[in-house]
Amino acid sequence: MSENKIPDIVIGRLPLYLRSLQRMQQENRIITSSQELGERLGISAAQIRKDLSLFGEFGKQGTGYNIPYLIEKIQQILHVDRVWDVVVVGAGDIGSGLARYQGFSNRGFRVAMIFDRDPLKIGAKIGNFIIQDSHNLSETIRKAGIKIAMIAVPSSEAQTVANQLIKGGVRAILNYAPISISVPPHIQIQYIDPSIHLQRMTYYLE
Known about the structure:
Blueprint: H1 8-26, E1 31-32, H2 34-41, H3 45-53, E2 59-60, E3 64-66, H4 67-78, E4 84-89, H5 93-100, E5 109-116, E6 125-126, E7 129-130, E8 132-133, H6 137-144, E9 148-151, H7 155-167, E10 172-175, E11 188-191, H8 194-202
Parallel strand pairs: 4-5, 4-9, 5-8, 9-10, 10-11
Antiparallel strand pairs: 1-3, 2-3, 6-7
């Protein structure tokens, strides 16, 4: 099955499989099964086998999956067998936290730049980064060849920032601003809004 025909919900589960496999590897494990992986993730073994079969045969019945091999293959499928540079736009609490976060590097990502429009923040240092002027955003990221961005600006600025990013050649956006953004069909966009997830959970609370 070609990548274009793989259901997005399946793609969304692959990073969960990868994270769990990497934890097993840290435990010095070599072999696992779809049953064990499913128990760790709360996903049926049959679903895991079905998902992985869309990309090839990675295990043998009765033998299970070789963990290092499956990690390598899933990293290749997700294109995280390399390191992607990422730009952060917005140097407030969320953006600053993203710039300082150390957990991206072993997952295939590296924050390379951070931008803001506030004159009081431009030129200041966050971790190892100097905050750059977002007025130069498109030109700077195009020169750097950056394809992935995280937006951490107020809702009122998010669409303008997204437009600048796309103009600069960004093709994938992770949006922390609590607003939906309009992007062309070829742009990948994901949203992180904690209040949405909280509201989803409170439905089940009395």
